[in-house]
Design goal:
Elements lengths: L6 E3 L1 H8 L5 H10 L1 E4 H13 L4 H10 L7 E4 L3 H9 L1 H4 L6 H13 L3 E2 L10
Parallel strand pairs: 1-2, 1-4, 2-3
Length: about 130
């Protein structure tokens, strides 16, 4: 690990960066400072890219070679404890309609006491 993580990314944030969508510059800054993502959000990212015809193995290899994956962006394994934290966020976040991926990002941010970058602007959580 080259950088200490300073933020947690949701799949939508990483996708915005990878595809040059609105918000990409903010995510680029977060990546420069070091970011982390749950394995659930990583799976969601790869799934969305696969839906668009990109091979997940090729994407992971390219991002590793570019110095992004396992350097500027770390993947955090989802254990049983984090899974329970994600589930516990269902009821408190129901009014905002947060998805499983959104709750995975938020739960990891809460665990690590880091800001989270989610698609819903009301859920940007600075530490």
């Amino acid at each position: 690990m080259s950088l200490q993580a300073t933020s947690v990314l949701d799949a939508s944030a990483l996708l915005a960066y990878l595809q040059g969508e609105p918000g990409a510059a903010i995510v680029a800054t977060a990546l420069t400072q070091g970011s982390i993502m749950s394995s659930i959000n990583w799976a969601e990212t790869l799934t969305k890219l696969a839906e668009r015809g990109q091979d997940p193995d090729v994407v992971a290899t390219q991002l590793t070679l570019q110095g992004l994956l396992n350097n500027a962006l770390l993947i955090y394994p989802t254990d049983e404890s984090l899974a329970r934290s994600i589930a516990k966020l269902l009821l408190p976040t129901q009014p905002w309609g947060l998805s499983l991926g959104d709750r995975a990002c938020l739960a990891l941010a809460l665990r690590l006491n880091l800001p989270a970058f989610l698609k819903q602007p009301s859920f940007f959580c600075p530490s």
